[in-house]
Amino acid sequence: MADTQYSWPSRDDAKLLGKSITRVDSLAKSTGAAKYAYDINFPKMLIARGLGSPHAHCRIKSIDTSAAEKTPGVVHVHVLDLAKPGSEVQWQGELLAIVAGESEGAAAEGVSKIKVEYEMLDVFVTDSDLAAATEAGRTSKGGGKVQTEREPGDDDDEEEFLTKEFDRLFKESKYVVEGTYGVDAITHCCLEPHGATVRWDGKSLLAYLSTQNVSGTDEGFANDLKIAADDVEVRCDYIGGGFGSKFAPDYWGVAAAKIAQATGRPVKLMLDRDQELKIAGSRPSGYIKVKLGADKDGVVQVWDSEHWTSGGATGGGISHGVIPYVFAPKNYRRNAINVKTNLGPARAWRAPNHPQACAITQTAYDDLARQMGADSYDVFLKNLGTDDKPGVGGAKPSVYAAEMEIAAKLMDWKAKWHPHGKGQAKGSLVEGLGMAIHTWGGGANDSNCLLKIYPDGGVESFCGTQDIGVGTRTVCMIVLAETLGLPVEAVKANIGSSKYPVSGPSGGSTTVGGVSESHRRAAQDALAKLFELAGKKLEADPAALEAVGGRIRVKGDPKRSLSWKETCTLIGMRPLEVTASFKRGTPSPLSNQTVGGVQMAHVTVDKETGVIKMNKFVAVQDIGLVVNRKSAASQVYGAVIMGIAYSLFEQRITDPKSGAFLNAELRDYKLARIGDIGEIVVEFYEPDSERQRGVIGLGEPPVISPGAAISNAVCNALGVRVPVLPITPQRVLTALQKTGRA
Amino acid sequence: MKSFEYAAPRSETEALEVLSAEPGRTEILAGGTDLIGLLKKMVLTPDRVVNIMGIPSLRQIERLPDGGVSIGAAVTLDELLDSRILDDYPAIEQAIRGISSMQLQCQGTLGGEICQRPQCWFFRDGHGLLARAGTAVEAGDNRFHAIFGNQGAAKFVSSSRIAPALVAIGAFARMFGPVGQGETFVPIDQLFRVPRHEGQRETMLAPNQLLTHFVLPPGTGRFSATYEVRQGAGPEFPLAAAAASLALEGGVIRDARIVLGQVAPIPWQSPEAAALVVGRSMSVELADAAGDAAVASATPLSQNGYKVQLAKVAVKRALLMAAGLPTGGF
Amino acid sequence: MTDSWKCSDAAANFSRRDFLRGSSAVAAAASLTAAAVQADAQQASGVAIVSGATGISLDVNGKTHTVSVEPRTTLLDVLRYQLDLTGAKPVSGDGSSGAATVMVDGKPLCASTLLAVACVGRKIQTVESLGGAKPDAVCLAFAEHDATQCGFCTPGFVVAVRAFLDKHPQATEAEIRSGLNGNLCRCGTYANVIQAAIAVVKGGK
Questions:
Q1: For residue A621, which of A591, A600, A652 has the smallest C-alpha distance?
Q2: Element holding A615 (H helix, E strand)
Q3: Is A391 inside a domain boundary?
Q4: Phi, psi of A23 (to 5 degrees)
Q5: Which of A7, A182, A456, B96 has its CA 20 to 30 A from that of B228?
Q6: Residue A41 backbone dihedrals phi, psi, to 5 degrees
Q7: Is the dihedral of CA A61, A65, A66, A71 positive or negative?
Q8: Which of A427, A609, A613 is closest, CB to CB, to B310?
Q9: pLDDT tens-digit profile of A456-506?
């Protein structure tokens, strides 16, 4: 509504907003009642499994599905475009054909009977080796940027000026740090693989898709199937992880629909675990050569780096725009080289670019502290700059400084600190501290909401959004209930269907902001209408009414009130329907963007074996206004744990000769287990200055800093940098042996 | 999985009836924690699967007259832990606890754990036990492969976590069959062999022969321990491991057996390390020297040199633990 | 074959009768041993070979179900496709994740690595048996302590925690942290799973 002032209640007035509310769907999950795309069963449903290319780079010469078709229980074999003779396969695992059968066993057996002839092509997967990549012709420019405080004169040759200028800057530096750092590629590894269970009803397609983009994937199906988007309904009530990899139906989802069409039967097509890791998304690797120069105070004045990065077979990689990460030295030169490999393509992985950029650059800042013999905390603090002369992008220096102080207290940093490598060893065990800082955008996404208020008092909303783990339904309910003065249980939020009002995909940490916008607006608008009705009944000015504790009442005169139910009977015979729309980027008091965060790690390293254990991890995070404190905290815990995984355990291991993804099963693809996490402390930074900014996205920011924080802690423990993540025992021993400290 | 027949014999004799002499035609199913995964990946494609969990004699734990123990091959690992029979054999208990997964412990059996197929990712991806006569391992990523006994085609490591403990303790294996053969007892280390061609497996069990029991000598006077170098808290396999069994008298080592795990195609005994410690009292220096002795003959591949250090530390710490001394590390 | 094996003294002293007689330490085992002797002494009576599709009875959540399976059909497939008990989840196929954890005769096992035919005569309980009108304390604690995010690992975790606490009702936090490593979570709910388990211990259920 045009002149409505949309706003949040104050911290004191808020009844539900910012409190810890149990998710409405937690019990469905913990009792096994929640149904995911993988769980949907239709009568006469076929089970479909894919044949993936065993080779990383090859051309298809021929494909013979006759034996597969004759396999008992196999109903249909669908050959994909990639399997057409002459097609080039560019990474292992890419699907060539799909077999649909009466059972898992039949489908799998059918897959094993497909005969394919391959012509082998050259393979390159060693993205960490720039020289080898260059020699193999697999590199391309990834862009770069130079910025110097001083500018060349009008007559100066720019190249010459830069060379001289960087020379000068380094010569004038009190401290010069040179190093190489890196982070290996990983995958999304959603526990629920990609896939769909689909059924045709006449010419309408119902697709239960494991997706983080309910409102956008109906078009994906429609385009590829050449039908109208209106004839597609995508449903996703629960999704078993997305992390940025599930925005589209993917060709296998479309194939499931085609098979269902051809056979006249519903089809479930889900990727196998190894396929999931090989083809359904990865996070680019990055390796960097850095030279930085700092003044006597440890403030970095010049940064010079080149990084090489691989997003797999389809190119791309870590953008140079985030190098160095958050810190913004006045003079920098940064260059990126993209490396193309025969590995599964990258997809957006939680906070794309940021975790790697943080891990390969804030480690260099920590090495500056190490060289200075200084406390990393002090060096990081100095490099923040001040709010009027910021040395960082992202959040304000004063915000980072405040968060650092909180984190340091929670970690007991000052008491635990010792210079790098100078801690007291206990036998072969040494411990150390490390920290990192991060930023993220997280502005609210597009979101439309239909709110219905029934004459009997019922309240429900419809929104084509999804819950990838943030607790979307409950967020919607909290916002509605807060606005309408009702308990959370009195409202219902419907999500997960592309037939509901369009809402943006869950990417970029935009969902909570988006649905908060649409639901708050709808509820405030609905309330205004109810106030009109109640005002008449109460003979009061609608502007003088408030909704509190299940009643509509006159402010300052609570005896003049109607119950919620009484108010709703005034609606009439049909429900009150209100739609609200929020468009991304609209300035609004309800939401905002740009957050900061600070994280600290305390680890113990066994110098004889290189094994690392987490002692304690502290995460301080600002997100503007916290909606559901319980699920928000969980997001941070979860992100930190994902961070521990990619810092210590997780990596894609590929065979240098064959290009095979060697550890594509969970036996070898290591994630963190419950015994690996140590103590984790989460704190939201929410002074009034932050809270009044409104809702800002949280899903991604806390996953950014763990890599650098943990690497810095390991370096502090050992006095030696283990340069590449994950920091495996092997890498620790190598680093110790290199410096003779084994 | 490829289609197969299923049989659930109720006695050892019945089991022999349904096992085939032809390699690969029948597979023995115990807990299934290893076999089922291999069937799904079609690394194994038997025509018949024989479930031995219904054979009562294979499910028993018995104290023997000489003070030793007989453990049926189909006893689950959690049953073993609960029975307290392992109080005298800490090396075995520690190896089982190292597996770290309640489900694997409740579902997995002692026989199954000992006979599990190697974790080698070339093998599990269908390139054969020897991974194309060892060439795939040599040329490829061999970081988790063998540093001993790897001069032939076999470069995988024996993945059993309990086998080193059983070898160190001097256990025996009882086998039954083939038909007409009756029972055989072998010292457990002779159960394992390094295969030389694709037709051979890592144990010398014939396809129609049943591993029925493990027999442990009395534990009195012996002190044992297993130390595993594990990257994380989960059930993923150790990077290196060692089991040590010491006969101690007045603090002096009278006899020692030291066996390394996860480093060779078979549990790898180190008589060199054992010889070094016999007649002496354990100390950090001695344990360290024994570790060095154990790895002196290591022949690492292109990417697994780091395992030499880990194997050395595993030996050192297993010895210290067996002697009741702190390891100084995790 | 036996000639080539040199048995040490221990084995030589070890006769088959000794072996079978055992000691009185494990009384139940003795009777089983006797039965084994009996069975072996008889003529082998012929083992039933199951081939192709076959009907079997499974005891799931207290009810008997008759289902048609092949020998290669896993228990997980039966639960999910034939009984529509989709709580147990397929994640890795080889049991690494624990997402398919169910209770069989009171013990937590991975349904993804169990053959359905091998589960005949055993008591199977899935996560669904912990739900219903009066959900189990573990289910409630998971909800209360927000131990779910995407929720795909949750059913396996709930069954594992239930089994673990059944066996260790007084478990300490340290024991909880070391007792549940058979279950993987990608979203990172571990911190809250620990709190949920502690709450159940405190609540005495």
A1: A600
A2: strand A612-621
A3: yes
A4: -60, 140
A5: A182
A6: -120, 130
A7: positive
A8: A609
A9: 999 999 999 999 999 999 999 999 999 999 999 999 999 999 999 999 999
Q: Would residue A184 count as lying in a domain?
A: no
| Residue of C15, C24, C50 to mutate when probing chain B, most B C-beta within 10 A | C50
What is the structure's pLDDT at C43? 39
What is the per-residue pLDDT for A1? 54
pLDDT tens digits for range B192-244 = 999 999 989 999 999 999 999 999 999 999 999 999 999 999 999 999 999 99
Q: At which of A582, A609, A641 does a domain end? A: A582
Residues 54-83 (C) with a CB less than 8 A from some CB of B = 70-72, 74
Tell me what pLDDT residue C5 has.
26
Give tens-digit pLDDT for A153-189: 888 899 999 999 999 999 999 999 999 999 999 999 9
Are residues A522 and A596 located together in one domain of the fold?
Answer: no
H helix intervals, chain C? 9-12, 16-21, 27-41, 75-77, 137-144, 154-167, 173-179, 190-203
Instruction: Find chains touching chain A: ≥3 CB pairs under 8 Å.
Output: B, C
- Entry pTM: 0.96
- Cα separation, A397 vs A387, whole angstroms: 5
Q: Does B327 touch chain A if contact means CB atoms closer than 8 Å?
A: yes
- Please give the structure tokens belonging to residue A356: 């790697």
Residues of A in contact with B104 (CB under 8 A): none
List A335's β-bridge partners, or say none: A144, A306
Boundary (domain end) residue, out of A243, A270, A297: A270
Tell me the C-alpha distance between B242 and B244, whole Å. Answer: 7
Q: Is A344 domain-assigned?
A: no
Report CA B296 to chain centroid distance, whole Å: 23
Q: Which of A76, A66, A71, A73 is nearest to A98 (CA)?
A: A76
CA A428, CA A432: separation in Å to the nearest integer? 13
Chosen from B44, B62, B190 to mutate, greatest number of chain C CBs within 10 A = B62
**Measured between alpha carbons, how far is A315 from A346 in angstroms, rounded to an integer?**
8
- Give the count of Cβ contacts less than 8 A between chain A and B: 102
CATH number of the CATH domain containing A108? 3.30.365.10
According to DSSP H, which parts of A172-213 are helical? none
One domain, residues A405 and A395: yes
Length in residues, chain C: 205
A171, part of any domain: no
Check: CB of residue B34 under 8 Å from CB of residue B112. yes
* Structure token pair of residue B254: 């009278």
- With 0-12 / 13-18 / 19 or more C-beta atoms within 10 angstroms meaning exposed / middle / buried, residue A259 is buried
Both tokens of A618, joined, read 């502290």
Same domain, A578 and A563: yes
